[in-house]
Amino acid sequence: MSHDPGPVIKPIRNFVFGNRAIILTVFAIMTVVMGFAASQLRVDASFDKRLPITHPYMDTFREYGAEYGGANRILVAVRAKDGDMFTPEFFTTLKNVTDEVFNIDGVDPARVTSIFTPNVRFIEIVEDGFAGGNVIPADFQPTQEFLDIVRENILKSGQVGRLVATDFSAAVVSANLVDRDPQTGEPVDFIAIGQELERVIRDRYENERIDIDMIGYTKVVADIAEGAYGVALFFLLAFGITTILVYSYCKSFRVTILPLICSLAAVIWQLGLLASFGYGIDPLSILVPFFVFAIGVSHGVQMINATGAEIMRGIDALMSAQNCFCRLLVPGAVALLSDTIGFLTILLIDIPMIKELAIAASIGVAVIIITNLLILPILLSYVTRGEKYVAKLERAAAWKRPLWHKLSYAATPKVGAVIVAITAVIFAIGWQGSKALQIGDLQAGVPELRPDSRYNVDTEEIIKRFTIGVDLLQVIVEAPENGCIDYNVMNALDRFDWAMQNVEGVQSTISLASVMKVVNAGWNEGHPAWQNLSRNSQVLVRAVRPVETSTGLLNAECSVMPVLIFTEDHKATTIDRIIDAIDAYVADNPDDPLTYRLATGNVGIMAATNDVVEAAQTPILIYVYLAIIVLCLAMFRSIRATLCTVLPLTLVSVLCYMLMAQLGIGLKLSTLPVAALGVGIGVDYGIYIFSRLQHYMREGMALRPAYEQTLRETGSAVVFTGLTLALGVSTWVLSDLQFQADMGLLLAFMFLVNMLGAILVLPALASLIYPREGLKNSAALDTTIPDNG
């Protein structure tokens, strides 16, 4: 029989099922078109997409980044395995590697630095006065005589620890990358550059005597992209696990394949629409398609479950599909709208990469409304299921019925009060644990990659041998014109440099003041007593003359003098400590003649990004919850029903943050969206359960029997979906990407806790919120009502 769908849903139902063939044909054609568009989707890892464009630091970055180098650097270290770099083979290799770096597309040739480049010089005092030259002589040959000369030149140049390892075991080639091709104006493909570095440098020059270490943004994204290709394998693995489990649940291959096809179609549409809108996909957003697939499967199983219940009542395929379409359209659409709004709130973070991720996820979830709430019931209306299928469903329902009966006691005051009390304790523990969550990276190296990955091993080798690294915070210091020959100005710069050197987490610093002191000592036979700044402007002129603007330590007018602060790592605690020290220094020196502007360098970008994420995390959660509350109020027309649906989600949020803190996962660009996802998945479960619970209560059933009937019809699908999706993502712990492994653990945890919250906490809250008189007949249950387990 058919249920009255109401005046709003009825015309929609009549239109949809009256034009089934046409709708399916149009959908099939559109899916093919979207599939072709998806094949054109490109991986886009451009650097400027990661910039927090409205943060105050970005004003400094845009103004001075081109002149003094931005945040996108690479370091290529050539390392002698025997610990001695002064061999002909080593210097031949270093020369070749320097040339290779020059010739890589995307590298700014003016900012390539090694002891072989002409912008690296030494200064010394000779009998006839002041002298200097390139560290590597123009007529250099890899002979022992020249190697001895180069060793002396390196010592005179002050590059030990910077371009040459402190133990003389390695030398580094540093280069800055441009964000756009200067000829075409197109964004530079950093993944391709990272792959080219492997091909033309590591593969060609690494051997049994020479090691090549490479770090920098372009290597990070290339290594993540390489690991991301494995995401496809885990996607297939998760798809296979889901298929097997859905089949065990549905008892029919034809029924099993339909929600999977619709969920895959949602992914195809998502990727196709992204490509059509001109977007690419970032390597760190590569998991978003799986999120869409998982949400699609969740809603698809609800539809399969509902039609199975109708079939068990003896209703034919067409009528059962129509009834379920009418019954699930509103709760399903509200749940998916909640998911969509949850992702759209991430647009509050004014970083292009996050905005694109939010758009991609929102598109995918919105498409599920079409694929799983519209197309899936149409497809199910064509699938006839015989007596054997019904018998399988009845057997499955029979063995699960005692479980649902026991779980229904969660909707009684005594048991409900215990559950709520336990939940409150867990919430308090989670709240306390969530306070340990930190913003930004919590480990040295790149946390998206495994600790033993080649990139993180290379990072450790470079940090161990050099006093500089790829982690650079560059403070732009503005001074009056010709400030470099003004003692008060240079003394202020020197005091700031000294203060930064003594901040915990700072590996080394370089400033014009520190270089001028070395030059001044050189003019006085290198005596340490003369390593200072003279009050005589003529002496300062002599000290600054050898320092060229190509060093990046001053401009032609001597009005901008950056201070380079090399940090030991880019942990959030390290960055915060250094930024706080800079702010404190400025506050404590109000009469300082210099203006200190933050910041360029990759650490400057990270500091700005961390600020943006920290500022946005609370508003995002507030807006997500507000959107869910408004939608639940509109659907249930009940404050109590809304509280029962929304309150369990808060438990998941705090427990997710606590787990992240325990796993050492910081809240940053790649992990913040998981919080929104967790709330979205949870509200799906809650809306489906409470919509049926409210339906039976309005029909006059007491809370506990109403909840038992809800479990028979909807609870089975919720429990199954939570377990299936958790099992599918748990396989990610085997991924080469630490990021994917961490997200697998977090998602599995959220799928399970959301499921338990909807099954246990929601009815427990209802037992305390709804009036006692509604529970008088809690022992009565019409067991003749058929269900599908």
Commentary on this structure:
The protein is 61% helix and 7% strand. The protein has 23 helices and nine strands. The strands form three sheets. A four-stranded antiparallel β-sheet has the order 7-8-6-9. It has a three-stranded antiparallel β-sheet with strand order 4-1-5, sandwiched between helices. Strands 2-3 form a two-stranded antiparallel sheet. The two termini are 21 Å apart. The protein has helices at residues 9-18, 20-39, 56-68, 88-102, 144-157, 190-205, 217-250, 253-276, 288-312, 317-344, 352-380, 387-407, 413-434, 454-465, 487-501, 512-522, 537-544, 572-588, 602-636, 639-663, 672-698, 703-730, 738-769, and strands at residues 73-80, 121-126, 129-134, 170-176, 210-216, 472-478, 506-510, 563-567, 595-600. α9 crosses α22 (703-730) and α21 (672-698) runs antiparallel to α22.
